[in-house]
Write a structure and sequence with these properties.
The chain is mainly α. It has 2 domains: 92 residues, no CATH class; 91 residues, no CATH class. Helices cover 79% and strands 0% of the residues. The protein contains 7 helices and no strands. Helix 1 runs parallel beside helix 3.
Length: 212
């Protein structure tokens, strides 16, 4: 009976060891337990505790020592796993906080130079002339008013502002620092060119379709 109980616990301990090793090395060659049992530690702990109680009641010191050792090993595994998970969660939270603070510094710097000073503007005069020349030919007044709203300087500046923030979040990597006016200007020039290119295509397409 004692041999059977020890063999049963040894089998479960072996299964737990395999899973622990697979957690450290995902390329393990063990196949019998291809799907991790996330409660396996607690199952083995329950078995060891139960056998310890049986051994105590039967006054079986050999089985008691064996079950107690297994119980301590599993408890140690559980504590180590919980500590590793807490550390991983803490690192993840720190990374998220750092990322948020990084994005917030970029946002504040861009908002200051775009809207508080302000240091940037968008010239829409070319589009104003194009739309004015075609206004009388528009077959759909709603499309004309929509195009004019699209080309309002504050609307175009807002689009550039969002694009600049996005660019700097990808490219600005000085930890704990904010982008300078010069760095924002470089991003502004690059994104303004893209906004103008998109506006050119949108205006030409809209006029061609609704003001032939």
């Amino acid at each position: 009976m004692k041999a059977t109980l020890k063999a049963h616990l040894q089998s479960w301990m072996g299964r737990l060891e395999v899973q622990q090793n697979r957690g450290r090395d995902r390329h393990s060659d063990f196949a019998p337990y291809s799907d991790d049992d996330f409660f396996l530690e607690y199952k083995v702990l329950g078995i060891a505790t139960f056998l310890k109680q049986v051994a105590y009641q039967e006054d079986d010191l050999d089985l008691l020592a064996f079950a107690s050792k297994a119980e301590m090993q599993v408890e140690s595994m559980i504590s180590a796993n919980e500590a590793a998970e807490e550390e991983a969660d803490r690192e993840h939270e720190e990374q998220q906080q750092q990322s948020y603070e990084h994005d917030e510094r970029i946002r504040k710097s861009c908002a200051y130079h775009f809207y508080t000073i302000p240091a940037f503007s968008v010239d829409t005069s070319k589009y104003d002339v194009m739309v004015q020349d075609a206004a009388a030919r528009f077959t759909d007044p709603y499309k004309l008013s929509s195009l004019r709203r699209y080309l309002e300087s504050d609307q175009m500046l807002s689009r550039v502002y969002e694009k600049v923030k996005s660019r700097l979040r990808r490219t600005f990597d000085r930890a704990g620092d904010s982008p300078t006016l010069e760095e924002i200007e470089q991003a502004f020039d690059a994104e303004l060119s893209n906004i103008y290119r998109l506006a050119d295509a949108h205006v030409e397409r809209t006029i061609a379709q609704y003001a032939p």
